[in-house]
Design goal:
The protein is an alpha/beta fold and about 210 residues long. It has 7 helices and 5 strands, in the order E-H-H-E-H-E-H-E-H-H-E-H. The chain has one domain: Rossmann fold (3-Layer(aba) Sandwich), CATH 3.40.50. Strand 3, helix 4 and strand 4 form a beta-alpha-beta unit. Helix 2 crosses helix 7, helix 3 packs parallel to helix 4 and helix 4 runs parallel beside helix 6. The protein starts with a strand and ends with a helix.
Length: about 210
């Protein structure tokens, strides 16, 4: 029986290419993006790409719009794709924008709210709860055209792995630190280049098989 994996994230799940200019809206093609590559590595799984550029954990964005709030739209997305066996959550990078004034600990607590929303959703098989893989994005750089938007965020992002790992431990869900396998592009300090797509797909495939069979 085919199982379903929902990849819930931001522009780095969407496949946004490193941006040389703020107006750039390039996106890697389907065959390059890590969710598509992940699907090819997982036998018996359907992989759903659900990446929105600018998506935060729990914050309405006063500039880019309230629809960027990952918590508020999550219930509708879960119900749209049910039954879902596993939700891979990779969010937190956009929370580092100066407009939100949060730190790594705040991001980890916000991710806890997302995990709890999945757990009470009744969107898993048999109206149960989907399982969760909680992912820490890699540290960012303050570089290029996005440096001002993320001012002060690089130092905060270096605390992601420890804080998010603690949240995962406390909630009893598997955890993966992407800093072990990828780094952000030096072009804009936020997005991942093409080789990183394959690296992420390989790491996620290993984690899915290891934790969920």
């Amino acid at each position: 029986m085919t199982r379903t994996l929902l990849c819930y994230g931001d522009s780095n799940t969407h496949g946004t290419m490193p941006m040389a200019e703020i107006e750039d809206m390039g996106r890697f093609g389907p065959g390059i993006r890590w969710p598509h590559l992940l699907a090819g590595k997982l036998n018996g799984w359907t992989v759903i790409e659900e990446g929105l550029p600018g998506r935060t954990t729990v914050h309405d964005d006063p500039i880019e719009g309230p629809h960027r709030n990952g918590l508020s739209v999550l219930p509708a997305i879960l119900e749209s794709h049910r039954p879902i066996d596993v939700v891979l959550i990779m969010l937190g990078t956009n929370d580092l924008k100066g407009r939100f004034s949060v730190n790594a600990s705040d991001v980890a607590h916000s991710l806890e709210r997302l995990v709890r929303a999945v757990e009470v959703s009744r969107c898993g098989p048999g109206a149960g709860a989907p399982q969760v893989l909680l992912v820490a994005p890699p540290p960012i750089l303050e570089a290029g055209c996005l440096a001002g938007m993320f001012e002060g965020g690089a130092e905060k992002s270096r605390g992601f792995a420890a804080r998010i790992a603690e949240t995962a431990r406390r909630m009893g869900v598997p955890f993966l630190d992407t800093a072990d396998v990828v780094a952000v592009s030096e072009i804009d300090g936020i997005h991942y280049d093409e080789p990183a797509q394959e690296a992420l797909a390989t790491a996620f495939a290993g984690a899915i098989v290891r934790h969920f069979g």
